[in-house]
Amino acid sequence: MKKIVMGIVAAACAVSMFAVDFSATVKMDTTIANKAGDDVEFLKVNEKDQKDGDALIISGSSDKAGAQFQLWYRYEGTDGTEGGNPVLPTAKSAIHVRNVNIWFKPIDQVKITVGNVAIDSYKEQIFWWHGVYGAKPGSWGAFGGEYIGTQAGVKGEFNVIDGFTFEAALFQGINTAMFSTADGYAYKGYAVKGKYAFDGGSATVVFADKGKDQDKIIALGADYSGIDGLYFFANLNLRINDGLQGLSVDNYFKYNADALTIQGHLPFVMFKGADDKMVPGMYATLKFLYAMDGFTPYLLCTTEPDGDAGWVFDDNFKFFMTFQPGVTFNVGSASFDAAFRLDFNDANEGSAKVNWKVPVGITCGL
To answer: Does 365 score more than 90 pLDDT?
Structure first.
C-alpha cells in the first residue's frame, strides 16, 4: 500500500499540467474511561471505522481535467482471544481506498467523471455520514445524502441551462460488470438528478435505482440560506420495492447568532414492518455550541451518537438518549474534542440503564 500511495503522489506531482493540492489528516478516537453496566474500562483507543475523516487526500486539476484520491483507515486485529481460547493479541491500522476518480470536460458545459462516483442530495452537518431513506431507524444506507454511492461507475454533469444542473450516473456494483446479459438485466444501478439554484437556495429531484430487486428512491428536496444566520433543508424520500416500503422527511437546520450556534437534525421515518404495517420512527439530534477565546464548549443531545440508533414508535418503544457536554480546542496543528457522554436507555436493566464514558478525539492536519 505504501508503494501504491507513493507512486500516486509521484505521478501526480510529475504531471505539470495539474496544480496539485495535497492534504493529510490523522484522526484518533480514544476513551479515557467507559462504564458499561457494572464494569468500567480505562484508556482505550477505539477500534471502529473512522467515518468522519480521510487519512490522505490528493487532488489535482486544470480547467479541463482533474483527479482525486482519498484514503481512510480503521483498526483491525485481535483482542487476545480466538474461539474462546487465549492467543497473542495483534493490532494494525489498515488503509482503505474511499474514493478515486478522474474527470474531464469535453466542453465547458459537460463534465464526465470515471471511478468512484455518487448521486447525492443535501447533507446534515452534525453526523454527516447518516442517510435517512425510509428504512427502519438504525439501518442507514450510504454516507450522508448519497442515494447511490460511492461506487465505481461513470457520471455525467450537464450545465446547459443557466441555474440548472442535470446529473446521470451508471454504477457497476461490487465485483460485477457494469453491463451483463448473464441474469437478463442490463444494468446494476443508475441514478439521475436535477437541481435548480435560485437566489438564496435550490431545489432538487432525484431518482435512484439500486439494481434488480433492489430499492428505488424518489427524492424531492430544497435548501435555503436567504435568512440572515439561518440555513436549512428538507427532503422527502420515498423508498419503493414492490410497492412503497417506506418514506422519510429528512431535515436539518443551522442557526448562528454571534458566538452561539444551534444545529438540529430531526428526520421522521415511516417504514414497512411486520404484517406490512407502516411503523413510525425518527431520529433526534440537537447541538449547541458557544465560541469563546481559544475554545468552544458544546452540548450534544442525540438518539444516534454511533450512527446506528433511532426511536421506533411501536409496542416495544423504549426511551433512550445521549447527552454529551464537551469542549473543542486547538494545540498547534492538533485539534481536540473532549467530552463526558451520558447514555440513558430504558431497554437495559438495573445499573445498565445509565452508562457513561469520557471520549477524546484528536485530529492533526498538515
So the answer is: no
